[in-house]
Hints:
This protein is of the alpha/beta class. Helices cover 29% and strands 22% of the residues. Strands 8-7-6-9-10-12-11 form a seven-stranded mixed β-sheet, sandwiched between helices. A five-stranded mixed β-sheet has the order 2-1-3-4-5, with helices on both faces. A hairpin with a 2-residue loop joins β3 (50-55) and β4. α7 runs parallel beside α9. The protein is globular and about 55 Å long.
Amino acid sequence: MTDQGSPVIVVYEGAVCEERATALAQRLHAPLAPAPSELQVDADCAPGQLHLKVSPTGLCLARDGMELVPDFADMMHRIKPGALQRELLVKAARVKGMERPRVVDATAGLGEDSFLLAAAGCDVTLCESDPVIAALLEDALERAAHDADLAPIAARMHLVAGNSCDILAELAQDPDSAPDVVYLDPMFPGRTKSAAVKKKFQLIHGLERPCEPDAELALMRAAMAARPRKIVVKRPVKGPHLAGVKPSHTLAGKAVRYDCIVPPRLA
């Protein structure tokens, strides 16, 4: 944690990136430092310090030699013909009779699940409360919009930075924006110790903490209040139900399961 309260230091490569880095540092209330070389990055950032690097190619989150650059191009193999239809999340989020359901991903993270849903034809609103993760996601979406293969999918992904409970409440007030599906994937405490978690995602764990019971309950209540046709919750395969709410049905794989909750529809 820096003196100004931000978990990151914003660094930039060369004068061409200074203007963008300055605006980003102001937005995040984070210190700003030039980084023309890796030696200077190390000098500006103490061991264990997260830094958000602005380069001509985009944003990079880094710490102690680990780097994370979200890139939806890395997921192209999962949306090839035949592969996308086998994704459990895509099956769980289907709404009978709807070709383009409106989905709110209330815990967007780096947007990988939202990308799968958008590739399957959903119109997805991505909610991300952590401003650093939201900045990384915004950058990934901007780069995707300039990629011919990714642009049609990115066009169905709409990022809203902020508290998902507040965003769900706002969407529920507008019939034209009310979701058909709300997707919840809050960080589960056991994941931070799992050997399956890639090292680079330890960087994200430094920004977001596992969801506490009170937060789980608030998230589930907000999802219910939005009156979607379906709520889909991603859980570890043997994990407890989110906020103790039993699903209408479940789709389970080897490592995760999707609890599908169908709230009663009010006239």
